[in-house]
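Input chain follows. Return structure tokens only.
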Amino acid sequence: RRAGHLLRRGGDLLTCDGHQLKLLFAAGLAWLRVNYESVNALNVFPIPDGDTGTNMLLTLQAAFKEIEGNDDANAGKIAHAFAQGALMGARGNSGVIFSQICRGFSRGIGDRPSFTATDFAKAMREATETAYRGVVKPVEGTILTVSKDAAIAAESAVQRHNDLRAVL
């Protein structure tokens, strides 16, 4: 709720710092906590093992634990710590791929204290490219496709908006 309130308050959101990025990660974690079983039901590749949502949740919890007590305002440092937590806490194939997405996103943000909508779109592209490179035989219809489609959507949105809310 706090993240939603902060993101809705007036005016365009032109930059995102480490505090705001941490709130976005918290909002993602909160969403997955509620919806992980729906993600489990989506999993059909390579076999319908039904644990993708659970593995993603465990990975995201580990990633968030890495930044939970971190009060750094630098977005790059928060993104890097989150990616490190995802890597160390990765569960299952989906968690490992998610950690690569986080790694690429972190690389895309670099050491920026804050980032813009354009920076975000570029970081999403780097996240996707990193994840695809990290998989021996990439298969469409997986989390890789979700990452790719999200990057394409961010790149398209940034052509029309400089407000991070609109791009997100």
